[in-house]
Every structure is written in structure tokens, then in C-alpha cells.
Automatic annotation (TrEMBL):
Alphabetized PANTHER family for the sequence: LYSOZYME-LIKE PROTEIN-RELATED, METHYL-ACCEPTING CHEMOTAXIS PROTEIN MCPB
Domain of life: Bacteria
Protein name: Methyl-accepting chemotaxis protein
GO BP annotation list: chemotaxis; signal transduction
Compartment(s): Cell membrane
Zinc among keywords: no
Length: 560
């Protein structure tokens, strides 16, 4: 009867069956007891009234004297028998009989429609009770071999006899039986209706619910292609319509989620590819930045060495200036101490030789400085190229970050900072290149001046040699030598001033290289941090791709 344990149909049937059973049984009992009560109160008194009426006539027509005489006289018995038969016919009772106790024995004195006389027949309990109490007594409806009866018993005063008037109670019995049968039929109908009606109602209610359950189970299994078949317009129909609407919305949502998952997979693949490319670019930029940092360190060391050499050159030039001043002073004294000419000429020869050596050393140092400045210019060119490459890489990184959208915003900031640092490095390199060019020009002028000094020294050497050979011409040449020495002193002073400028420029170059090296190291550190961030972004992108693929696998379980 029930297909599922704990189903709604079972609950509906049980929920209505028990009250129907209870009401049916209660109504049947009420009907039974009410009917019996009606019989007892209305029908039975009328029945007993008829018996009592007959008994009253018997009391008048059958005195105790006649009973006593009938016990001893057959004729009196016949008289008594005629009386009871007449009353029976008159009142329509079933039977009138008289029982007597004679010497402790129960004897049937007279009975209607029978000529029996003093036949031994035991009295029933009701007759004995009436005889003992002396009170009239109605019996219950009873059944014997003659039928169904109800009797009224009366003990005749002054005798041991009991008159009983019996009436056919078949109709009463049938009436009570009909009440019982009707009550049982009502209970039976209640049982049948209690099963059939709730089952019909439950089936009527649960059939669309069963269809709805089957529909929802199909949806739960992922099949969203089915359509609910409930056509009722009640709450269940509205519920089915709501389920259908929910299924359609769920189907659309799954389609959108599937499309979004495809887009996420494609986007994550593209993002992973872009992130890997960007990671390679950042890695290359890091390597290039480290190389630039190493080159900057080397250039800084070379610049420091150049600075030391320039300081030495400046010291030598200052010595030359000092020596030139002394030569001028000594030349002024030549005119006053001609007598010491030989010794002074020898001293002049020594001084000129020293000047010649200093000039040669200065020329060599200046040439070395010129060649090193050429090397520095090449290094500056490399720095400029590297800065251009870094700027180009930063531009590409900014483009990739812009393509990455919100996720590449941080990398875009780093790329902008790298590009700024690269531009600053390029500007610093250009400044260094300009300083190197100035230094080369100064070096070239120094070389030319040194060459001129060398020529002057050689010329003065010739003059001094000639003076040694022709000491007589010394006084004539003193003025010319003094002028030449002053010219040399002025030139040396100019060289000294130029060397001071070169030294200051070299100081600036060393400081710029130190700053550029620090910036390059900062860029390298930032690039390494960015590389770590890119690797994390690649890992996150791969995780996103995995989750998107898992989502697509879950969505494939649905049929839409």
C-alpha cells in the first residue's frame, strides 16, 4: 500500500484514517447505545405495559382460592385453563402459565394451549425470585426451544404459585440485532471509507508530489533537460512551477558559469604565458642590471685610479710651476751674479734637465690619462646602451603590466621606476661623457702645452750649452731666457689650472659613478623582488587554472 517508509502519502492516510476510525467507532457506539436506550426507554416499557395489563386482569380473574382449588380439582383446573386461554386470545400474549410448589416440588399447574395438569417442571431463577420476594418481576429477553420471549412473573399472595405472562420478543431481539448489525456496518463502512477515502485523497495529493520528487531527483542527478508534468493549479502546481523556474534559472546559471569557466581557463592560460614571458624579461633585466652594476663598479674603480693619477699630475704640474718661478728668480739674479755664471749655468742645466724629465713624465701621464679617458668613454657608451636596453625592457614590462590589468599594477610601478632609473643612468652617462670629452680636450691641450714646453726646454738646453761654450753671450741672452722662462711659467700655471679643473671633474665623475652604482644595485634588488612576485603570480595563475578546470569538471555533471 505504501511505497516509501515515512512518505507523505502514508502520513496523510494515517493522519485521516485514525480520526475517521475513531469518529466511526464513536458514532457507532453512540448509535448503538442510543438505539438500545430508545428501545429500553420507549419500546420496552410499552412491551412491559402490555404484559402488566394482562397480569392485572389475571389478578382479578384468578384469585388465590381458585389456584388452591385447581391444585386439588380437575374441574377447577379446567376453569382456570379457560380463563388463561381467554385472556391470551383477548390480549394477544404468547403464553400464560401457572407454576406451583407442592411439597417442595415444582409443578406446572396450567399453561395456555395445553391440557397438562400438575406436570413436573422446574421453575427458572426469575420465578423462584418472584416467589421468594413476593414482588412482580420482569425477565430479560431470553431464548429457549420455543423462541424468544420476555416474561412477567407475579407471586399469588397466600399461595406457593407464580403466574407468568410471556410475550413474543422476537421483534425486540431483531431490533437489537439490527442495531448491532447497523453499528457493525457503520464501523465496517467507516473502516472501508477510512482506508479508501484517505488513500484516494493521499493519491490525489501525492501523485503530483511524487512527480515533483522524481523531477527534483532528476535535477539532483544533474539532468536539467527534463520538464515537470504537474498540471494542477493549487499550491503544489505553483510549487512545481517554481521548481521549473528554478531549474531554468539553474540551467542558465550553469551555462553562464561554464562560459565563465572557459573564459577563466583561457584568460589564466594567457596570463600564465604572459607572466612566464614577463618573468623571463624580468630575469633578463635582472641579469643585465647586475652586469651594469658590475660594470659600474669597475668603472668606479677605474675612475678612482684616474683620480689618483690626476692628483699626481696636478702635484707634478704644481712642482713645475714652482720650478718655473724659481727659474725666473734665478734668471733675474743672473744679471747680478754673472761671475757665478758657470756654476749657475751648471745649476740651470740640472734644472732644465729636471724640467725636461718632469715635462716628459707629464706628457706620458697626460697621454695615459687621454687613453684612459677614451676607455672610460667606451664604458660610458656601454652604460648608455645598457640604459637604453633597460629603458626598452621597462617599456615592454609596462606594456605587459597594462595588458595584465589590475594584477600588473604593482609591476607597472616597478617598471616605471626601472625606466626612470635607466633614464637617470643615461643622463649621468651623458654627463660623464661630456666631462670625459672636456677632460680629453684639456689633456690634448696639456699634451700640446707639454710639447711646447719640451721644445722650449730643448731650446733652452741648446742655449745653455751655447752659453757654456760662449759664456760671453750670456748677458745678451739673459733677457730672452727670462722672457722664455716667464712664458713657460705662465704656461705651467695654465696647465696647473687645467689640471685642477680636470681633477674636480674627475671627482664629480667618481661621485656620479658611485651614485649610479648604488642606483643600479637598488634596481637589481627591485628586479629580484619583482622576479619573486612574478613567480608567485605564475603559481597563482596555475592554481587559478587548476580551479577553473575543476569547476568545468563539476559543471560537466549537469545536462543542460
Amino acid at each position: 500500500m505504501f511505497k516509501q517508509k515515512g512518505s507523505i502519502r502514508k502520513k496523510i492516510v494515517l493522519g485521516t484514517l485514525i480520526p475517521i476510525y475513531f469518529i466511526t467507532i464513536l458514532f457507532s457506539f453512540v448509535f448503538y447505545f442510543t438505539s438500545i436506550r430508545i428501545i429500553e426507554v420507549n419500546v420496552m416499557p410499552e412491551f412491559e405495559k402490555s404484559l402488566n395489563f394482562t397480569m392485572d386482569e389475571l389478578k382479578e380473574k384468578v384469585p388465590d382460592r381458585l389456584i388452591k382449588l385447581a391444585l386439588d380439582n380437575k374441574n377447577q383446573h379446567n376453569k382456570l385453563l379457560n380463563i388463561v386461554n381467554t385472556l391470551k386470545e383477548k390480549n394477544g400474549v404468547e403464553n400464560i402459565s401457572i407454576h406451583s410448589k407442592v411439597n417442595g416440588e415444582d409443578l406446572l399447574l396450567a399453561t395456555t394451549d395445553s391440557a397438562d395438569y400438575l406436570v413436573a417442571l422446574p421453575m427458572n431463577a426469575d420465578k423462584n425470585q418472584a416467589l421468594e420476594t413476593g414482588k412482580p418481576l420482569f425477565s430479560d429477553i431470553y431464548k429457549d426451544e420455543f423462541g424468544i420471549h420476555k416474561s412477567f412473573y407475579y407471586a399469588i399472595p397466600g399461595t406457593d404459585s407464580v403466574i407468568s405472562v410471556s410475550q413474543d420478543a422476537t421483534s425486540l431481539s431483531h431490533l437489537k440485532r439490527a442495531v448491532i448489525i447497523i453499528s457493525l456496518v457503520m464501523i465496517g463502512l467507516g473502516v472501508v471509507l477510512g482506508i479508501a477515502f484517505p488513500s484516494f485523497i493521499a493519491r490525489k495529493l501525492t501523485k503530483p508530489l511524487t512527480e515533483l520528487v522524481r523531477y527534483t531527483e532528476t535535477i539532483a542527478q544533474g539532468d536539467l533537460t527534463q520538464t515537470v508534468q504537474v498540471k494542477s493549479k493549487d499550491e503544489i502546481g505553483r510549487l512545481a512551477h517554481s521548481f521549473e523556474h528554478m531549474k531554468n534559472e539553474l540551467s542558465q546559471m550553469i551555462k553562464h558559469v561554464n562560459l565563465a569557466a572557459d573564459n577563466v581557463v583561457n584568460s589564466s592560460n594567457e596570463l600564465a604565458y604572459s607572466a612566464e614571458q614577463m618573468s623571463d624579461v624580468v630575469n633578463q633585466s635582472t641579469v643585465a642590471t647586475q652586469e651594469v652594476s658590475a660594470t659600474s663598479d669597475s668603472l668606479s674603480v677605474a675612475a678612482n685610479q684616474n683620480l689618483t693619477a690626476l692628483e699626481q699630475i696636478t702635484t707634478g704640474i704644481q712642482d713645475i710651476a714652482d720650478s718655473s718661478s724659481k727659474v725666473a728668480e734665478e734668471t733675474a739674479e743672473v744679471s747680478e751674479a754673472a761671475e757665478q755664471g758657470s756654476r749657475l749655468i751648471n745649476d740651470s742645466m740640472d734644472g732644465i734637465n729636471a724640467i725636461n724629465d718632469s715635462v716628459q713624465a707629464s706628457m706620458e701621464i697626460t697621454q695615459v690619462l687621454h687613453s684612459r679617458s677614451n676607455e672610460v668613454e667606451k664604458i660610458i657608451g656601454m652604460i648608455t646602451d645598457i640604459s637604453d636596453q633597460i629603458n626598452l625592457l621597462a617599456l615592454n614590462a609596462a606594456i605587459e603590466a597594462a595588458r595584465a590589468g589590475e594584477a600588473g599594477k604593482g609591476f607597472s610601478v616597478v617598471a616605471s621606476e626601472v625606466r626612470n632609473l635607466a633614464e637617470q643612468s643615461a643622463v649621468s652617462a651623458n654627463q660623464i661623457r661630456k666631462l670625459i670629452h672636456d677632460m680629453q680636450n684639456d689633456s690634448r691641450r696639456s699634451v700640446e702645452a707639454m710639447a711646447k714646453v719640451n721644445e722650449d726646454v730643448e731650446r733652452e738646453t741648446v742655449i745653455v750649452n751655447e752659453a757654456g761654450a760662449s759664456f760671453g753671450n750670456i748677458l745678451e741672452k739673459i733677457s730672452q731666457i727670462s722672457e722664455d722662462v716667464q712664458s713657460v711659467s705662465a704656461t705651467v700655471q695654465e696647465i696647473s689650472a687645467g689640471s685642477e679643473q680636470i681633477l674636480a671633474s674627475t671627482h664629480d665623475t667618481v661621485q656620479s659613478l658611485a651614485t649610479s652604482s648604488g642606483n643600479t644595485q637598488n634596481i637589481a634588488a627591485s628586479m629580484e623582488e619583482q622576479l619573486a612576485s612574478m613567480e608567485e603570480m605564475v603559481a597563482t595563475t596555475e592554481a587559478l587554472n587548476t580551479m577553473a578546470n575543476d569547476l568545468k569538471e563539476e559543471i560537466r555533471k549537469f545536462k543542460v
